[in-house]
């Protein structure tokens, strides 16, 4: 299990959020991807921030109350997100996830976003390894 790395469980198919994106579009992306937060990137995929469901709820509540229109992600994103390396051991990440926040980590290599890893993905992999379960991950090469 110590050899298992973040790169084994990260997702790289979910599009990050770009600066200037309206918050309603961010919410749509979060809901469609069944995820609690996403990194915010520039055109070169450098991470500029992170936006969560919680950020969106608060901003949309305030915006709707004051009839201010649709805020953009730049207004609400967290500007110092915690990013991890694809080479980080899953056991090390699991210890971080056990302490609470965040639930989603951007995975960065050479300063650019290459994917994300969620608490659910780590949990599923730990359960698969620990219990010999075949969950619908499809990453085993022993067939």
Automatic annotation (TrEMBL):
Q: Which domain of life is it from?
A: Bacteria
Q: PROSITE patterns of this UniProt entry? A: CBS
CDD domains, alphabetically? Answer: CBS_pair_bac
**Lineage of producing organism:** Bacteria, Pseudomonadati, Pseudomonadota, Gammaproteobacteria, Pseudomonadales
* Residues of the CBS domain: 10-68, 77-135
Keyword line: CBS domain
* Gene3D superfamilies reported for this sequence: CBS-domain
Q: Which Pfam families match?
A: CBS
Q: Where is the signal peptide?
A: none
What protein does this entry describe?
CBS domain-containing protein
């Amino acid at each position: 299990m110590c050899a298992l790395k973040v790169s084994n469980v990260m997702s790289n198919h979910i599009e990050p959020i770009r600066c200037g994106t309206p918050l309603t579009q961010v919410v749509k992306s979060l809901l469609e991807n069944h995820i609690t937060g996403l990194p915010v990137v520039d055109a070169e995929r450098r991470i500029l921030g992170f936006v969560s469901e919680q950020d969106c709820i608060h901003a949309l509540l305030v915006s709707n109350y004051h009839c201010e229109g649709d805020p953009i992600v730049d207004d609400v994103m967290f500007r110092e997100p915690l990013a991890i390396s694809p080479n980080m051991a899953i056991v090390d990440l699991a210890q971080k996830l056990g302490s609470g926040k965040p639930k989603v980590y951007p995975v960065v290599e050479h300063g650019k976003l290459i994917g994300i890893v969620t608490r659910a993905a780590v949990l599923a992999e730990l359960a698969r390894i620990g219990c010999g379960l075949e969950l619908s991950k499809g990453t085993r090469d022993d067939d």
